[in-house]
Write a structure and sequence with these properties.
Layout lengths: L1 E5 L4 H8 L6 E5 L9 H11 L3 E4 L13 H18 L3 E7 L22 H11 L6 E5 L2 E2 L6 H11 L3 E4 L3 E2 L2 E2 H13 L4 E4 L6 E2 H15 L8 E4 L19 H7 L6 H15 L1
Parallel strand pairs: 1-2, 1-3, 3-4, 4-5, 5-10, 6-9, 7-12
Antiparallel strand pairs: 8-11
């Protein structure tokens, strides 16, 4: 099975390469290999590699920057998906986001729930989803992090080492997702020849404040931090950002778990695994 993976330098792209199953011939490409705003370059790459499957792990993920740069976000998050679909007759596995929802649900979002994005990032990701064919695979996820990546966990570790106290938003609710677990789920779905829409995030529920508290506790116990600092819960209104974020974006991944029969892993356990990797990296 020959697989083309885009976004190879990102958190998920690296995890996909690291967890690829035996027998998968992975061709991983990053921005330096192919500019996803360049449709002819995308088409040429797909024709050159001639993969059986394309996993599109690339995205414009600068949520706040996208508010003033929606054209570029659309080129990467939507137009590039259309180009991949046109160039590749086989299955496209596309990774999307909880930001396609408006956060008004009273329960975890199911794969077939209506979308109502609040931000430019969310709109462009929803547009990308609309380019997929029935035989393609769409997997939505949320709050992704990994060792050595640019993410909330590593930002918190840095700030906890630098600051005497932190304020963290406590009224946005979801669940973190370890990139390694997400990658394994993608490969599992590929192995099942799944198509349609699925969700994946780690089990459990958290606010960003809950997540920050857990990061500090686990990192201190592991020796990544030398002392504990106060972490204060604040509201979204007290921390305004250019992009509106869903207040509630928990994803229902029961369809995914039932298909793969792999059980649920709580986000705090995966946080512990990630921090062990972070410590090993020095």
């Amino acid at each position: 099975m020959k697989v083309l993976v885009t976004g190879a330098k990102g958190q998920l792209g690296r995890a996909l390469v690291a967890t690829a199953p035996a027998g998968a011939e992975v061709h991983a490409v990053g921005h330096a290999d192919c500019d996803l705003t360049d449709a002819p370059a995308i088409t040429a790459l797909v024709h050159e590699v001639a993969p059986d499957i394309v996993i599109n792990a690339a995205a414009y993920t600068a949520v706040d920057k996208a508010e003033g740069d929606e054209e570029t976000a659309r080129a990467i998050n939507a137009d590039a998906v259309a180009t991949l679909v046109a160039a590749h007759p086989g299955k496209l596995v596309h990774v999307s986001t909880d930001f396609v929802f408006d956060g008004q649900s009273s329960r975890a979002y199911r794969p077939d729930d209506s979308r109502a994005p609040l931000s430019a990032y969310g709109r462009t990701k929803a547009e990308g989803e609309d380019h997929l064919r029935p035989a393609d695979l769409l997997l939505r996820t949320a709050w992704v992090y990994a060792a050595s990546g640019d993410n909330f966990v590593r930002t918190m570790l840095r700030l906890m080492a630098e600051k005497s106290a932190l304020n963290v938003v406590a009224d946005q609710i979801g669940a973190p997702t370890w990139a390694t677990g997400l990658a394994k789920t993608i490969w599992g779905l590929v192995g099942k020849d799944a198509s349609g829409t699925y969700h994946h995030s780690d089990a459990g529920v958290a606010s960003w404040y809950d997540f920050a508290v857990a990061i500090q506790e686990e990192a201190r116990a592991m020796g990544l931090l030398t002392e504990m600092i106060p972490i204060n819960p604040i509201t979204t209104a007290e921390y305004p950002t250019p992009a509106r974020r869903p207040a509630f974006s928990l994803l229902d991944s029961s369809k995914t778990r039932e298909l793969l029969d792999d059980g649920y892993t709580h986000w705090r356990l995966n946080l512990w695994h990630m921090l062990r990797e972070e410590k090993a990296l020095g």
